[in-house]
Design goal:
Blueprint lengths: L1 E2 L2 E2 H13 L2 H8 L3 H15 L4 E4 L2 E4 L1 H22 L12 E6 L1 H18 L4 E6 L4 H6 L5 E4 L10 E7 L1 E6 L11 H6 L1 E7 L2 E2 L1 H9 L6 E6 L5 H5 L5 E5 H7 L5 E4 L8 E6 L8 H21 L10 E2 L4
Parallel strand pairs: 5-6, 5-7, 10-12
Antiparallel strand pairs: 1-2, 3-4, 7-15, 8-15, 9-13, 9-14, 10-11, 14-16
Amino acid sequence: MRLEKLDLNLLVALDVLLQERGVSLAADRLHLSQSATSGVLARLRDYFKDDLLVLNGRSMVLTPRAEKLVDPVRAVLEQIRETILIDEPFEPQTSDRTLAIMATDYVVEILMRPAIIACATEAPGITFELVPIVEQPVEALLRGRADLLIGIDNVVSTEHPTALLYTEDFVIAGWRDNPLLAEPMTLETYGRLGHIAVRFGQHTSSYEATAAARLGSVARRVEVIAPNFMSVGGLIVGTQRIATLHRLLALRMAEYLPLKLMELPFDMQPVRELAQWSSRRANDPAITWLVARLKQIAKQLQCSSGVPAQRIRGQEVDHGR
């Protein structure tokens, strides 16, 4: 397919270059070498008679012409995908689709890791691209940055299809040898100990805000703000700090770190992990298959880990080694 010397492959490459604003990251997504991607950029510059990407200090920025191309190029590719590609039969065993999933590192570790392992035999030709959560995840989803967004209720939109994957509560994680954790956790101790929180962009994770609100007059001291969930366990060990973590993640970390897990000393609403996709992709059989598979994996994880339907107040879950 050619549009006056601009073939469809060049259009796909242009879309990725406009999103990533750099040759290196674009090369990774296009599964090309950096030199090959630079060659593609040169062809695009020649076609549009514009530099498209220019150096600004140590990073690259879009030219005014490139800025105007972002939405139209994305719209054209989405239209092609919706009207042509989605109508193709989908067979996981033979498909060579690339499916991009936007999620936190917690979801990648707990859900996507076992899902990708399972799909290695079920769908050997599918490429899974794991995309980090950005400031405006739904907007990024609609722009085609990902095929599927996985997040809690306040991350997804009510205007697009969603599916509940699983519901999860929280536990307190601390160092196994922390002497202040010798007794059952109380509200007073929870407020007195230093905390480790997680921040994505400008905001700490929503359950941290919920926990602080539950404390009422007790001041919760956040002493460390981590850039992701998976770094929290290592930051706890050897200190008297604690963290409020998803139960499944805490159980996973306790398999390889000397952690002590304890129940919260107050009621806290569980969170729902949801999958969301664009309403324009509602009939995409690959997304339907992936969501159904993720539901199965989530159910297996909760059954195998023995996660209770509801927290039992006062019980301690000690998985330290």
